[in-house]
């Protein structure tokens, strides 16, 4: 994989073909969030949206841990890297962008979770589109238990993604949950053996990357743009985004490849 120059000391950003892999890289602090890390995350999501050849991104953590939440002290400090400091001043609201709360990437993001994904770690997971979790992983939104508030967006998003009673269980009790519980709630897509989350996420990423990129982006945007709309209005948005996909050269190629029993070659950007 190619290490990209938008990486920071606490966030490694790598590219392999159509797949972007973003690794939270602060293992000495169980990958707790820092300003340095959030600048890297924000840069990675902007790159994923802007780079035509990127079709999907994976978010993971270094050394067997996803993310143990916010390090409030580190988040309030500037990076020790002058280049990262300068970049932070050029990215408005880099904290929210890094946390997938604002300016979401136009390409799907898959989370690959090992070890702890708690507090801000679970908030990041809730911001992703597909979720692969190792069987011994621990998840949870601990904020209320500590008289804090989940500022990453989970107080709004969680009950829109899983049944209300499960969302309130996680938000109001602040209790940890297992990967099996997360799967039973519908919070994650797959539970895999320990040490296999990134491998499984890469397999899933390849499936997404093999799909038509115009269709994938339009499906993501339709969901996001229709939140809160009544069905008739939502269907209008769906039609506006869907018909150009149906009429695209990629759609013709997909149909032709199916008839010819070969992999499609999508050229749209």
Automatic annotation (TrEMBL):
<protein>
    <submittedName>
        <fullName>Crotonase/enoyl-CoA hydratase family protein</fullName>
    </submittedName>
</protein>
<dbReference type="InterPro" id="IPR018376">
    <property type="entry name" value="Enoyl-CoA_hyd/isom_CS"/>
</dbReference>
<comment type="similarity">
    <text>Belongs to the enoyl-CoA hydratase/isomerase family.</text>
</comment>
<dbReference type="InterPro" id="IPR029045">
    <property type="entry name" value="ClpP/crotonase-like_dom_sf"/>
</dbReference>
<dbReference type="Pfam" id="PF00378">
    <property type="entry name" value="ECH_1"/>
</dbReference>
<dbReference type="InterPro" id="IPR001753">
    <property type="entry name" value="Enoyl-CoA_hydra/iso"/>
</dbReference>
<dbReference type="GO" id="GO:0003824">
    <property type="term" value="F:catalytic activity"/>
</dbReference>
<dbReference type="InterPro" id="IPR014748">
    <property type="entry name" value="Enoyl-CoA_hydra_C"/>
</dbReference>
């Amino acid at each position: 994989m190619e290490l990209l120059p938008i990486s920071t000391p606490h966030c490694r950003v790598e590219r392999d073909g159509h797949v972007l892999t973003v690794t939270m890289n602060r293992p000495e602090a169980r990958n707790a969030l820092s300003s340095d890390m959030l600048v890297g995350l924000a840069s990675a999501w902007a790159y994923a949206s802007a780079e035509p050849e990127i079709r999907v991104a994976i978010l993971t953590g270094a050394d067997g841990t996803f993310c143990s939440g916010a390090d409030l002290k580190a988040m309030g400090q500037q990076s020790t890297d002058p280049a990262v400091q300068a970049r932070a001043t050029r990215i408005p609201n880099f904290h929210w962008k890094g946390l997938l709360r604002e300016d979401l990437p136009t390409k799907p993001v898959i989370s690959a979770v090992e070890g702890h994904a708690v507090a801000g770690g679970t908030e990041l997971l809730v911001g992703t589109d597909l979720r692969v979790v190792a069987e011994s992983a621990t998840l949870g939104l601990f904020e209320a238990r500590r008289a804090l508030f989940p500022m990453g967006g989970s107080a709004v998003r969680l009950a829109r993604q899983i049944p209300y009673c499960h969302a309130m269980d996680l938000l109001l009790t602040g209790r940890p949950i297992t990967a099996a519980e997360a799967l039973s709630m519908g919070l994650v897509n797959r539970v895999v053996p320990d040490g296999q989350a990134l491998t499984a996420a890469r397999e899933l990423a390849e499936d997404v990357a093999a799909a038509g990129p115009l269709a994938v982006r339009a499906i993501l945007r339709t969901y996001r743009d229709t939140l809160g709309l009544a069905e008739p209005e939502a269907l209008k948005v769906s039609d506006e985004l869907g018909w150009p996909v149906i009429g695209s050269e990629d759609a013709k190629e997909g149909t032709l490849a199916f008839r010819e029993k070969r992999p499609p070659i999508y050229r749209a950007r």
